[in-house]
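Troubleshooting log. The previous structure file for this entry was overwritten by mistake, so regenerating from the original sequence record. Sequence copied from the archived sheet and checked twice against the printout by T.R.
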Amino acid sequence: MASLVEWCLYICYKYGRFTGVINFEYDMKARRARATKRTTVWAAVSHSTMFLMLLLQILKRQTIGSMWAGANTMTAYVFMAIALVRMCCVFLALVSRWCNRQRFMELFNAYMNLSLVHPEIIQYCRRSIVSKFFTALMAETLQMVVVLLVLRRRLTLTMAVGIWSIMSLMAIINVIVTQFFIALAHIRGRYCLLNKELRAVVSEVQSLVPNRKGVYMIKCCYLADRLEEIAQTHSELHALAEELSKTYQVQILCMIVTYYMTMVGNVYLLFSLNKYGALTKLLNIYIGGLGVMYLVFYYLDCWLNGLNVMYLLDAHAEMVRLLQQRTNFQPGLDQRLETVFESFTLNLARNPFKLRVFGMFEMDYASSFALGGSMLTHSILLIQYDIENS
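Regenerated output below.
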């Protein structure tokens, strides 16, 4: 499993370099990221070519129009709007990458150092990383296959270039989301290690019998030192997570908007496929099956993204619960040990772990349920509008 995780991480890094999302390279010998002329030129050419091809397709209105030739006007407008919003979001995300390239390089260095110093982190997040890699790969591949099969009889070179440009947007979105996913998974792995160490400290403190003798005092000092190290490491990890959310906040907001509109559009697409006979002429049972498989993997990928955030919040909540066990300690513990426990607990209370986006909302359970409810509501409203006006 370890070699499989390393292979997935390597492919994600190379894919990020290929798409230009990672506009720098990492030197394994020097253990630092650096911006080279080669990576800068490649990323700039890749992004410029993609957006130029997209612009030409929008001006010609050929690819999107051909894809929805059998649909009603409402369906075509909805998906053209989704495509334009997706294009704008990807553009803003890439602009953020270029404007904050130095911050992304520093962040990349920090996470690489974290994984190199603590390679055991991977064992706590390897299943998540492999699952994310597989579902994202399957969703992207199935989407490409379905589009090509639907347009196979009318496919031209110009249309193929347009499809490549549109699929490039999805590739960039997947790379950015996967990078953020892996970063959060590494933080969760480090949290699990800290919780393991904290659980051992709490267990040893609970077994102490206060007697003020030399061995007892030495043991208390040793446990206090270990607890201070855990508190200091947690403080650094918390700062790293906050830097991650601040650096990625533009991209996170763009990706949430993109996922939101795409998921609403997919629900409306299923309604359209069932209602309009002209659109279903483009499909057969095999293409329909592949389309269903694509939707399954797409929603599974979205579910894994949300689950990754929730696992991290649960790991932090576990640390808080472990510290609350201090109320069960025997009275008369060493003063320094009690002070360290109290300081750690107060620090967690004053600085709760939160993943904020522009200060507008937090990524947590409540926000996820609210977002899901909003997507369902807007999907129903869109379908109702179609029924009443088409």
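The first strand starts at residue 25 and ends at 27. Archived copy saved in two places this time.
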